[in-house]
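Worked problem 6 (solution included).
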Amino acid sequence: MSVRKLLFVLAVATGLVSVDNVTTQTASAQSAAAPEAAPGRGVRNVILMIGDGMGPQQVNLLMLYSRYASTSTAKNKQAALEELINSGAVGIVRTEPHGMMVVDSAAAATQLATGEYAGSEMIGLNYRGDRVETAVEAAHRVGKSAGLVTDTRVTHATPAGFAAHQPSRALENEIAADMLGNNVEVMLGGGLRHWIPQAANDRNSTTYASLMQTTGGVYPATSKRRDNRDLLLEARKTYKIVFDRQGLAAADKMPVLGLFADSEMGDALLERAAMKNEATRHEPTLVEMSTKTLDLLDQDPDGFFLMIEGGQIDWCGHNNDAGTMIHELLRFDAAIRVVMQWAREHEDTLVLVTADHETGGFGFSYAGRPLPEPVTLPGDAFKNGKFAPNFNYAPQDLLDMLYAQEKSFFTMMMEFDALPEAEKTAERLVEIVNGGSAAKITLDDAVAVLTRARNRNYIAGHPYMNTQTVPRIRDFEAFYVYGENLRMNQLGRRLAPQQHVVWGAGTHTSTPVLIGAFGPPAATRQFTGIMHATDVGKRIISLLTAGQGAKTAAAGE
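Solution. The predicted structure is:
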């Protein structure tokens, strides 16, 4: 796939080129994606990598950084995702759920997992509320293994959509039970809190003492369950359960359940800091989890389905945190690179890289200040004058500024909230932010971040909008819904002029996303053109089960 074609697809996805102008190309791509294009031929394994919240804008940030930043270590100054697309195929994916234009991560994952339209916030159900077969279950139906890897919680919306069936993504306790019942051969991520009994919250109890003995006490543990069902105890009958990277490294056969944090795993900046001291690092990286999962699943001669999620790209979009987002994109891209290398050595493997939706309406923009200084150019056109653009078009060294951020907005606000009440001042917020960010805020900025206003979205008892006041957002406030997290959105806005970054919302957008496909050509061709997320799901399941008839017949003999 040429760079020219990739840029063309990006232009369509972002509305710069009319879809009417590409009717011929789309029709051709749809023809190539039809069942008669030999679905399944040469495919034993399907790996689906999901960059949660990774719209075309985020992909472009990754490509810009890889190509132009002085701190970039990308091979040939090219992101692995770009290399994958150039070596394979690319398409555009519409993401809308049934009856709506904007999708949440649960419905988005369900649509990718099942090939059926879902309702908002549903897990493993179609829009009518019926249980529908997921890619994990389809793989199991034909004797293949399955794996789910995430840097969030294993019960979070994206992995849950592939191995659970619940009316709401919020039912993570029930989702954990579903996932255990689905016998997923490898599950790696965070979220211990949904697997352990409520009694573990009593630090003086034998339940808690036993839990600490089981986990080795590598991280504090709490329970979010409302009962005393012990899913860890149930899982131990079948699974090897690991809680740190050393335990994961020692795992040599399936099934494996890895729970490496009480809630989500550390963000990319915390991971980078932890890697400076290997002796004390207990969480595996996304690369380490992906590599081990491939080694384990490859033990199945019939093949496997694997979903790998870079889940915290989305959270950076929600928080309007561009500095952390580049690190989350790089963490995900590093996993893409190792998966691609593995697939090159296993020619019967299809790798798909896509997103469930875009988050935040992110982008770079040009500005009226500061204007660049006029410069002399060697070309004849400027022999009588200097080159002096009317606006500041975002210099490429801004990419290094973003990369230089050392703490996420979330970590900064956690540090602020941990201060004694008397110290929760604008002055202290300036110290915390400026100590962890290359872009700086002023005292006035800090005051703005801490200023509150009436919550116009207030609903009593709502899980997110149940406070009478919230940090003040002056415009588009209806699209900033996550309570105290609005301080991070305000912080992002205050740093944005220095970063040349614009944000459209604190929630998801309807922007179509890209899908890259790498592997057997007959399979990759099925993921070109414009399609819906349900088309992706249908084609994945078709590829996974294409040999079912022959396999069933052989078993019957």
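Discussion: The chain has two domains: 38-195+230-362+509-547, 413-499.
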